[in-house]
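Allow me, if you will, to draw on your knowledge of protein folds for a short while. I have a record of one protein: its chain in single-letter code and its fold written as discrete structure tokens. I remain grateful for any guidance, and I place the record below:
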Amino acid sequence: MNITYISNIPVNEFSGGMSGINRAVHDQLKRYHNISDYCLIDPEIDLLAKIRSKALRMLGFKANYHFFSNKRLQIIANQIETLNTSSEAMFFMGFTQWIRSKPNCPYYCYNDACFGTYVEYYNNKSEFKERDLERIFNLEKKWLEGAEIVFFNSQWALEETKRLYGMRGDNFVNAGVGGFISIPERDFYESGYNFLFISREFIPKGGLIVLEAFKKVKEIEPSAELWIAGEVPPQSIELSDGVHYKGFFDKTIPEQKHQLEALFKRSFALVHPTLKDTTTLVISELAYYGCPAISSNRFAIPEFVKPDKTGLLLEDPESPEEVAACMIKLIQNVDYPVMRRETRKNILNNHTWDMVGDRIHHAINR
């Protein structure tokens, strides 16, 4: 099938997160179909709407969600309408920016969550006018209902969309998600209690909690280390003994990608007590190396971490005591080698991009 692929992310930008997902989904579609056009559509924000929204906040009123103003959404819809394409279908990366478009052919889409979910977990919902949020919710619901298939990367996100929008979801499919890193041929870990915290957002993803927890771990196991990668911890935070900042790694740069892979090979466990997430690619990426995860029992994370088999789930990710207890539990776990084998087996059997591509292809064929 000839497909026009539409995204707001350049195809050659794939360092991680949504850019990595965008590139991976695009490449998987190419395995089975002809991508006749890659259309990058990402117009400037509606400056007037932004100014109005900021003014409302300054005056103590609730703001509009200016990034998805009617004007900007209509500009995007107009650009899609004027596309000169003879494709049999369109495939959209993401949902919300396209919700005013009316494709003249069947269309598909893929995302990690709907707009309603993002507002619930990434924004302070009370800061925005309910009427304006409802405007976007209703447009998105109608657009999703019109799609041939709506692909999600987790069952949690799929169910959240049905719940928030009151949808049956007959055209919803959980395609899953993979980690955006090369899959190694084996588990290279040898020894060392090297805990890894990696995130583009140090505080929202639990960096302070991990630092506090590690102090307790250090009292039990003096040889333990905490490696931090991604965003630099705030200067006001003093890194205690055994804590090392390893840097920020861009996977599009071969040398930095190799450095990140070397870090993964030596990691004892990922510690990710996130309070703000949908799915998290780093859990899958570390699992390819056999590295188990300690993470929140929230969002889609339980779909990727099996308690006591491929890691541990936190009931209270804001508790340094619980995080520390889980870290110590792994250190003292005599079945840790078995956990590493199960972690790698589970992820390779269920969560790779080739499997995602197969699921998308078979769903489209049906």
Observations:
- The two ends are 14 Å apart (CA to CA).
